């Protein structure tokens, strides 16, 4: 009789210890580790533009912008590496992990688009502090903005062309598609 090996889920603590020693970044989803791959030049330019803009807009208000090497823990205990996120509450993070961002941004690539739209979106929406989740298309000028209104309901809009993207933090801030896609 053949014996089948059964893998148990990785715990949060095991993940954090493993990730600290790893040369490769991993996301933890449902107790499973998923290795992160590299990104294209266009993807990096777009994420860099967004990071630079959020840093400049958020810093005077005490907000901190993070790019893809800083982990985000969602309430389910899963961990992701968003392309960009903004944390405006000093208690919303520690030295290794953010847990209370006001904005999360994912820049799609052909290999991550389905995950960014179908898996991460619903998971990100469970974060109480999150005011918006942006999915930025790396191939064309197109941003999908998911945002929470004052009643807690989530809405979605598609932004194209010369649109401006309203941000939940800092209050009144926005990004234009020209800024997001600069030099691409």
Secondary structure elements and pairings:
Blueprint: H1 12-21, E1 26-29, E2 32-35, H2 41-58, E3 64-67, E4 71-73, E5 79-80, E6 84-87, E7 97-98, E8 103-107, H3 113-124, E9 132-136, E10 142-148, E11 154-160, E12 164-166, E13 174-176, H4 177-180
Parallel strand pairs: 4-7, 8-9
Antiparallel strand pairs: 1-2, 3-6, 4-5, 6-8, 9-10, 10-11, 12-13
Summarize this structure as a short list of keywords or feature phrases.
24% helix, three-stranded mixed beta sheet, 184 residues, tt1808, chain A, 13 strands, 4 helices, alpha+beta, six-stranded mixed beta sheet
Structure notes:
The chain is an alpha+beta fold. It has one domain: tt1808, chain A (Alpha-Beta Complex). It is built from four helices and 13 strands. It has helices at residues 12-21, 41-58, 113-124, 177-180, and strands at 26-29, 32-35, 64-67, 71-73, 79-80, 84-87, 97-98, 103-107, 132-136, 142-148, 154-160, 164-166, 174-176. A six-stranded mixed sheet has the order 3-6-8-9-10-11, sandwiched between helices. Strands 5-4-7 form a three-stranded mixed sheet, with no helix packed on it. Strands 1-2 form a two-stranded antiparallel sheet. The longest helix has 18 residues, at 41-58. It is globular and about 50 Å long. It starts with 11 loop residues before the first helix and ends with a helix. Mean pLDDT is 91; it is low at 1-6.
